Amino acid sequence: MNTKKNLVVKTNQLNQALQTLSLAEVRIIQLAIVDARETATGLSTDKPLRIDATRYAEVFETTRQNGYKRMKEAEETLFNRRFTYLDDNGKPIKSRWLQQVQYHDGEGAIELVFTLAVVEGISRINGLEQFFTSYLLEQTTQFDSVYSVRLYELLTQWRTAKKTPCFEIGVFRDQMGLGINEYKAMCDFKKRVLDLATDEINKKSDLKVKYENVKKGRKIVGFAFTVHEKPKAKTDVVSKERDASTADMFTVEGLNDNQLGRITRNKQFIADYNHLVSSTSPAGQDPKAWEFEMINRLKKDASQFKKRPIREYLEY
Predict the structure, then answer these.
(1) CA distances from residue 306 to 52, 248, 254, 310 in whole angstroms, order as listed
(2) Separation between Cα atoms, residue 290 and residue 297, nearest integer Å
(3) Could you tell me the CA-to-CA distances from 293 to 248, 261, 281, 310 in Å, in that order?
């Protein structure tokens, strides 16, 4: 998977919504966000977004038949789901997730149209990254519990601070999607929800988290978490702090010829490296010759292309 392409971005306000989505419904929402980014069309309140069972099965590593089944089950329930969020004045507003949903039975696909509240709450990164909670879709695809997904989304906002404020138990239960009568005993809540979710996050994601009880007298009134990122493998992500001349930022390893072709056809790439060829040469006159020449140069010595990391041209 292209990790940048599978970035899920949601506003913190929407992330903190009081919601009760099932795991299949959460996964459909995640796929919708990713696919809206991937197609560069974004989300709208009048244009349906299509997700098919094959795509669901591929991302969440299940069979197409199971993906088909899960999506069909989620069609009706997702349309009826509501959530509550707070406006700028701290007053609660209720909204649905979807204003329209259609399942194409013979095609194994679902088409969704989100409500205005959701469309305004989900966006592609636009430079205001501090306003968004972002995480890679891959970090949650292996989760078996919806509680793990919800807790991950809450805690990933605090990865820079490394610790959270107290999550007051009543609000926290709502954020985890629990009904009034679900796991009312603290021992059940910890075993079935909190411990299950923290264990799965620690085993299957990029975060290492733990919690401590916050008490008032002898009574537990909430939980505070510490949140740490696990050390990244050297090949995972190049640090933004590294010098721009570092050669491994410009490697083409892992890129196929189609991707290299897209890079060389990128208008920004052409502007950055047009000076490398003479205007009278074949590469300076014919786009196909330019693409052929640049692909060969990238494969031979990518370190000469230093104006920006090579993979960035795939995102323009």
Answers:
(1) 39, 10, 18, 8
(2) 10
(3) 22, 10, 11, 16
